[in-house]
């Protein structure tokens, strides 16, 4: 999500009324950027579109589900193995938009 919000007129064939740029992505995740070492193997975390989390082993592409989902990670920490604990968090911004002009 590129940070842009577009209003359309549903009564006029979806004609675009305005576009507002919020200045930052509407949704952002750093989960897929995390690379960890597990049993001397390189592992990446992969979030699914419905909230599940998986670990993918880089050398053979093997994927395993993790025992928690992205929502649970936002509220707690989880021990992946003896030397690694992963924790999450979230940040919420609220913007006001003029419904007629899209002005932020």
Describe the protein.
With 104 residues, the protein is mainly beta. The protein has a domain at 28-87. 6% of the residues lie in helices and 44% in strands. The chain is built from one helix and eight strands. The chain is elongated. The mean pLDDT is 79.
What fraction of the residues are assigned to beta strands by DSSP? 35-45%
List the quaternary state of the chains. Answer: single chain
Total number of strands: 8
Low-confidence stretches: none
| Helical/strand content category | mainly beta
Question: How far do the termini sit from each other?
Answer: 17 Å
Strand order of the largest sheet: 3-4-5-6
The number of helical runs is: 1
Molecular shape: elongated
Alpha-carbon Rg, integer: 19 Å
Question: What is the residue-mean pLDDT, rounded to a whole number?
Answer: 79
Please bin the fraction of helical residues: under 10%
From N to C, what is the helix and strand string? EEEEEEHEE
Largest sheet: 4 strands, antiparallel
Provide tags for this entry.
104 residues, 1 helix, mainly beta
List the helices and strands and how they pair.
Elements: E1 4-9, E2 15-21, E3 35-38, E4 41-47, E5 52-57, E6 63-69, H1 70-75, E7 77-81, E8 84-87
Antiparallel strand pairs: 1-2, 3-4, 4-5, 5-6, 7-8
């Amino acid at each position: 999500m590129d940070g842009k919000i577009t209003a359309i007129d549903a009564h006029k064939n979806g004609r675009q009324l305005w576009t507002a740029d919020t200045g930052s992505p509407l949704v952002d995740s750093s989960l897929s950027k995390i690379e960890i070492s597990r049993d001397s193997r390189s592992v990446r975390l992969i979030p699914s579109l419905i909230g599940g989390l998986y670990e993918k082993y880089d050398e053979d592409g093997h994927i395993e589900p993790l025992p928690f989902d992205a929502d649970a990670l936002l509220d707690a920490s989880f021990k992946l193995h003896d030397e690694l604990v992963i924790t999450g968090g979230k940040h919420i911004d609220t913007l006001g938009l003029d419904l007629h002009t899209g002005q932020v």
